Amino acid sequence: MGTFEKTKLNRVKRGQNRAIYDTEVIHQIIDAGFIGHVGYIYDGYPISIPMAYARKDDKIYVHGSTANRMLKAILDSGKTSINIMHLDGLVIARSGLHHSVNYRSVTLFGEVKEIVNDQEKTTFIKDIVDQMIPNHWDTLRPMHQKELDRTMVIEFTITSASAKVRAEGVNDEPEDYDLPYWAGVIPVKQVLEAPVADKGYPSTIAIPEHITAHYNNFKQ
Amino acid sequence: MGTFEKTKLNRVKRGQNRAIYDTEVIHQIIDAGFIGHVGYIYDGYPISIPMAYARKDDKIYVHGSTANRMLKAILDSGKTSINIMHLDGLVIARSGLHHSVNYRSVTLFGEVKEIVNDQEKTTFIKDIVDQMIPNHWDTLRPMHQKELDRTMVIEFTITSASAKVRAEGVNDEPEDYDLPYWAGVIPVKQVLEAPVADKGYPSTIAIPEHITAHYNNFKQ
Fold first, then answer.
1. What is the per-residue pLDDT across A77-130, written as a single tens digit (0 to 9) for each?
2. Which Pfam families match (chains A, B) (predicted)?
3. Chain A: residue nearest B146 by CA?
4. Distance from C-alpha of A7 to C-alpha of A23, rounded to nearest angstrom
5. Domains of chain A by range and CATH?
6. What value of ipTM does the predicted structure carry?
7. A191, B64, B105, B205: least buried by Cβ within 10 Å?
């Protein structure tokens, strides 16, 4: 699938040995989650807000209310970036500054445009819901037109990206390995706990198979 | 402990019913983690990068290499913000656009300055390590002067902040509760898995009590 060209914008300056520009690796990190930090500039300040997303090919979709100040600022300026990060471990070293974390992180740059066609909007809202729980949208009450009308969908075409991944043990100073200290990695994982049914009908029926399947993939 | 004044910068525009300006709540959300998304502007783009932090009173500390382009940009411009977010649950509704997540999130604005005094720097680097694992720093090999010299510490004084918290069940349209669909909440939790000792000495000794205590607090 190729790599993203290293430019001034996406070149990883610190920890270059962990930098990855491979498209497939970057897509895998994106697909492992459904919430990313979307950046915008407000009153001169860089602000990032966690948002649900979906990826389709080289595009990321986010949605929000048509009154959303962040989405408007992003559309007006064309300037945003998205960071998606998964924490995988605490790296416990023999000295303070060699402490680290294992993680997978991507920073994405791209071009943004608003999706205005109703059918396209519906498709991408479906994708966002299905990124959270696969195969879910088609089991739900269909979206009302008025719901669609008050929802803004933004398409972010990834034009530049980089990943940083740390997935290894402790890297201490050579002379410190003889010190009588414990060191190692404590893996970190995000897990799902047992589903809690809503009042009424859900409390009397079985959880649908596609939700159970998703739960089983990530349960504690 | 009071509240943060609502200003143009920190006023929550979307979902105001979830907005919290209470200092104690905001501090609790900060203290529940150790990695936040720190924003900076580079080449006109808002970028956010996950960084380890510590909180002491109304101040946040982050550190990095003295060559770190982000920390330099933040110091030069004085413009940054920090978002810290904990994902607590998947909220599964009867219609797509009522899907949501339970979460605790803070966005912090403030003034930044570099800490240059060696003793202060050491204290705050200790705080960052101890935010990851409480009571840890004093059990480690003391920091070398050359390590301190190549580390930059930034103090971020929180001058404005807001939190958003969602911690509840499904909010569906009134008429949708009769639909024969499952709905509910799947709680999400970040957990620690069994520690993996580094080669050599650590593989032959017990894990120190303060690390075991931390592990027990968050283990799967």
1. 999 999 999 999 999 999 999 999 999 999 999 999 999 999 999 999 999 999
2. Pyridox_ox_2
3. A97
4. 15
5. 16-189 (2.30.110.10), 190-220 (no CATH)
6. 0.95
7. B205
